[in-house]
């Protein structure tokens, strides 16, 4: 592997941070629906709003 400067490493890590953020989209143009399963690990008052903010349109209930 080639050596990288600290600036190059910093720039790469910023790209990774950006890649992990949800995409900002105009929902009026999106034709795909996001279906999420609610089960034991996601069945909380804190998790459901996070899933909606991430783009979930429909929830499927899984008794887990």
TrEMBL record:
Residues 1-31 are annotated as: Disordered. Residues 1-14 have a biased composition (Polar residues). Residues 18-29 have a biased composition (Basic and acidic residues). GO terms for molecular function: catalytic activity. InterPro entries: Pyrv/PenolPyrv_kinase-like_dom, Pyrv_kinase-like_dom_sf. This is Pyruvate kinase. It comes from Polarella glacialis.
